[in-house]
Amino acid sequence: MTLPATMRRVLPQLVALLVILALNTAIAPGFLDVAFANGRLYGSLIDILNRGAPVALLAIGMTLVIATRGIDLSVGAVMAIAGAVAAALITTGQPLAVTLVATLGAGALCGLWNGALVAFLGIQPIIATLILMVAGRGIAQLITEGIILTFNDPGLVFVGSGTVLGVPFPIILWVVIGLCVSLLFRVTALGLLVEAIGVNRRASTLAGIGTSALLLAVYAASGLCAAVAGVVAAADIMGADANNAGLWLELDAILAVVVGGNSLMGGRFSIAGSLIGAMIIQSVNTGILLAGFPPEFNLVIKAAIIVVILVVQSPASHTLSAYFRHRPGAAQDRSAGAVRAAGKTGSAGKEAVR
Amino acid sequence: MRTLKTLAGAVAFAALMAGSALAADMTVGFSQIGSESGWRAAETTLTKEQAEKRGIDLKFADAQQKQENQIKAIRSFIAQGVDAILLAPVVATGWDQVLEEAKDAEIPVVLLDRQVDSSDDLYLTAVGSDLEHEGAVAGDWLVKAVGDKPCNVVQLEGTTGSSPAIKRKEGFEKAVSGHDNIKIVRSQTGDFTRTKGKEVMESFLKAENGGKDICALYAHNDDMALGAIQAIKEAGLKPGKDILVVSIDSVPDIFLAMQNGEANASVELTPNMAGPAFDALEAYFKDKKQPPKFIQTESKLYTQDDDPKSVYEAKKNQGY
Amino acid sequence: MAASEPLLRAEGISKDFLGVTALSGVDFDLAAGEIHALVGENGAGKSTLIKILTGAYRRDAGRIVLSGEPISPSDVMEAQSLGIGTVYQEVNLLPNLTVAENLFLGREPKRFGLIDRRAANRRSREILAQYGLSIDVSAQLSAYSVAVRQIVAIARAVDLSGKVLILDEPTASLDAAEVSRLFAILEDLKARGLGIVFITHFFDQVYRIADRVTILRNGHKVATRPLAGLERLELVSMMLGRELKEEESHRAPAGEAGERPVVARFRGVGKRGRIAPFDLDLRAGEVVGVAGLLGSGRTETAELMFGIAQPDEGRVEVDGRPAGFASPRDAIAEGFGFCPEDRKQDGIIDDLSVRENIVLALQARRGWTKPLSRKEQEAIADRYIAALDIRTSDREKPIKFLSGGNQQKVILARWLATDPRLLILDEPTRGIDVGAHAEIIRLIGELRERGMSLLVISSELEEIVAYATRVRILADRRHAGELDAGAISADAIMRAIAAGERHGDGQGRAAEIMQEGAA
């Protein structure tokens, strides 16, 4: 019961992903080839999984925040802070473990700051997180003193470009973290409580849910995910680039969540959907790079594809397809079709995940 | 730390300004944009170094990316009766009035690094690099390096639509255009960043037979080249040998790559704009010699033969 | 009534929503100079019929004839221009515009192509004078009470349309004096020859104002009857489709309350500007009714008791131990439960399923690390769906698709699942249909008999009389008195409230409303 339900929930996203991959294959012969070379898997598919890691990691935290009817604009800046903290500590000779713990701590702290503004001061999430989005990059620049702070510590570099059994480590990171967070929220009652807050925060408080603590935790989780993404991005280029690390990635992460079929109005959420959303976005990016169009077209092509995906997912198009199935032409199938259609409209993008 | 130093410096200069009438050979005010990049910081460092070397009393004002701060600084320089003003303008427009004021006070103004829209009789001269020339220097190096062997080049462009991206592309393409053995097979933007440089290079490698069909990489800045070098290594190829790497800017890190044999050449966008500016001013004050309206800085080419280790050490301390 | 051609006639109106029948072959007619009530339980099809008459929905079948002409309005604007105007429960005006701007929105009088503000104000005053309202028409609408806004909305609808006026639950947020005033206006409009369709849940009002009534049930018309000579019981049974058992008005037994254990004790608990300090003991097995006018401090009392707002003085004891509630969570931990007045805003989690809504408070109390398994959740949900007779096709249906009465039962189930000792109900029967109304009243009695302590806030005096073992009277933001079991009657409560209001500094809200118009 549970597995098919989950599959049904992300089916439109899976279909979209497959269509994009098919397009890529048509554009770039050999797109699907995966080889084993230099002790690692090698191929465009692997690139997509690997390059999509930062957005996928951000999308995990962003999904939770959006489920509470919030938004976290600061994740890109938190990535820059995390990269800067990691690089600064490792270059001053701190051991890897200390560096990683401090970096994740910095990310969680950023998240707690956002959460406190939202939960205790009642500031709208978009404004509350805008503060750190603007200030965060400045903080990162203070830490790196305005330069690209490079490092060579093999342990830290491993996070970005190491492999386990040939699989690049960032892929393992986002898959494992995604699975763990999904399980945590579905096996415990956190999923239900977070969804309740997102649909109606006041009613949730009246029902006895500790809404403030939960909001705090959710933003902290988003900060943690951003910190992991920041370490991956910095380790990938063996340097902390405070100006550019994670730049605009908050928007890609939000897009991944939405393309993953989650509503910005909060409530029902699917982390699996968001992760597939992240892979859809990265597949589009990689496809554009492989296609060899002039770079002036990159953003237009990307926007066009995203628009198509969102239009196909929109409630209006569900209603429309229900209408066509319901036309008198299909008279003998009328009642059966109607029931199906009614079920479908009701569930448009919001069906239970469990 | 660096920020603290800069701050302390600024305070010291401000103090100097307040009590100045110190008898130096020449007093010059310098209105800098800010310190948004490593290159900009190096420009500030080198300007101060050059002034000290020549015994020039330099008054420094950091505008923190705001034109109004720059205009205020220039008016204050005029009020203090400096001998000359260096201006690195944050934007191109809106300078007419304050430049008129400087002209009325008979204080020559030298523009650094960027141009303005005002009529050219309002300033003495402008010192800057020629972006197209930089691309041409890189292209010429590649032409010489490959001789008449066939060579497929991939290009990492700067941010789409930015003038360095357009000019550096044109200069390079012109330089290689007469040589039929050199072909630019792929060209894509890497947004001047290491991350995008690496990602785009990965896709180039996939698209061109695992990189076996690529002979050289031309990147519009060193950071993209540094990202791409990692991608080439992860693909199991040797950057600098299997794939030649030439880029522009000459930031310190590219010299480390050259020393390791992973990068081949870099064209310098010199942060020393003040040197030629002071030369022109000194000549102007000595025998009223009018300099040309544009002084082009040298676009020096560095290769693995130029002792990259010591260049790195030298550059490292310039504030990049 | 009208033997000739009626003003408005609808025949065989049908409407499906994606295979679900909302209306099926409904006939309806309205004479000029008639007030016609439209009643039915929630989901009977009242609002669908209204929306078809006003062009908000397209009908699937049937025809509509207005003044002898067949019409097919495709939107609300067209229906208005044909002569059918509507006023909804949530007044559809713009509070940040002036009264005159609201009256003439979209059809402002023009002079030289510019809006002639002076003419608009003059004509607004003329129009409102017909309704006995002389107010400053250049003031923002938000400066006036809901009652005045409603009159402005009616004035606009009549001025725009002029033949048929449809009122969708116009009295839901009005008090008695305001209702009387509204009815006087309706009588006047009726005398001017308008046909008026009136939707309400209140039987008293149907009998007071309407000439005829049409009863809908499950998308079908049950009957159209003149009210003269129609028994209440008959009307109710037509609505419910079954005979009512004897009216649920058995008096709660006068308790030997003194001997029952005190569950919660409030001493001098108050909050400045909200409610004056009060003492209150709540015992097991009793129902304390709370009565008072709107704004007398009823909800404020409940909020202090449940930790939604924090008192700035006084102390609370639970089972004789001192307790303090920083949040509803703390109150719930002590075994309290609270059904809020505003079900939609504060009660239901509308996108979540009936099951999730039922288990929510229990799950929140257990904490996130001790989840109820899916099986346990289903068992709890099924138990209460059966016990409270919650009408839903499926426990996984989002609660927003349930009728108001069933939503209220789900909220009750949410608290019953936590096995509370003290349950606070704020207007538990507001805006729900007659059947659910009676069931909730019966349930309150059952819970009391099982030894639960209940505090029930209600503006329905008959209701309080039916279940309360004693009644707290609130007036002017303070607890003004209490009626013991023996003394409880609607009359006594009303007198106590009136005495309380007179006693305080407040002028009494009823008087206020009357003056607003007369000024």
TrEMBL record, chain B:
It is found in: Cell envelope. Keywords: Signal. SUPFAM superfamilies: Periplasmic binding protein-like I (SSF53822). Residues 29-284 form the Periplasmic binding protein domain. The keyword Amino-acid biosynthesis does not apply. NCBIfam families: YtfQ_transport (NF041827). PANTHER family: D-ALLOSE-BINDING PERIPLASMIC PROTEIN-RELATED, GALACTOFURANOSE-BINDING PROTEIN YTFQ. This is ABC transporter substrate-binding protein. It comes from Jiella sonneratiae.
From TrEMBL, chain C:
Keywords: ATP-binding, Nucleotide-binding, Repeat, Sugar transport, Transport. GO terms for molecular function: ATP binding. It comes from the Bacteria. Signal peptide: none annotated. SUPFAM superfamilies: P-loop containing nucleoside triphosphate hydrolases (SSF52540). InterPro entries: AAA+_ATPase, ABC_carbohydrate_import_ATPase, ABC_transporter-like_ATP-bd, ABC_transporter-like_CS, P-loop_NTPase. PROSITE patterns: ABC_TRANSPORTER_1, ABC_TRANSPORTER_2. Residues 8-243, 244-501 form the ABC transporter domain. The keyword ATP-binding applies. Belongs to the ABC transporter superfamily. This is Sugar ABC transporter ATP-binding protein. It comes from Jiella sonneratiae.
